[in-house]
Amino acid sequence: MKSKNKLIIRQETLPYLNLFDLNKSWLSLKQERTGLVEEAHELRARMWVLSHKITEIEEKISQAIVKLEKKNV
């Protein structure tokens, strides 16, 4: 019964759909998705660079701690 109702609703609304608006909306969503994907790639690249910089800083800090410990001994 429900499937028949859905079919009737679709048949009734189909003539009123503006295909140009639907296509325009779809293209807009597609462009938005593309932009979000590009932004995600850029953010991943930035995170990679930052994580390597953090690793370098951590190494320098540990080297400085070792030097200080040697001076204090």
Could you characterize what this model shows?
It is built from 2 helices and no strands. The chain is mainly α and 73 residues long. It has one domain.
Q: Quick summary of this structure?
A:
By secondary structure, this protein is mainly alpha-helical. Helix content is about 90%, strand content about 0%.
Estimated share of beta-strand residues: under 5%
Number of strands: 0
Poorly predicted ranges (pLDDT <50, ≥5 residues)?
A: none
User: Please, what is the average pLDDT?
Assistant: 83
Class inferred from helices and paired strands: mainly alpha
| Order of helical and strand elements | HH
Q: How would the global form be characterised?
A: rod-shaped
Q: Helix proportion of residues, in percent?
A: over 70%
Oligomeric state of the chains? single chain
Rounded to an integer in angstroms, the radius of gyration calculated over CA atoms is 29 Å
How would you characterize the largest beta sheet? Answer: none
Distance between the termini: 86 Å
Count up the helices: 2
Q: How many discrete structural domains?
A: 1
Protein traits:
single chain; 73 residues; mainly alpha; 2 helices
SSE blueprint and pairings:
Elements: H1 2-13, H2 19-72
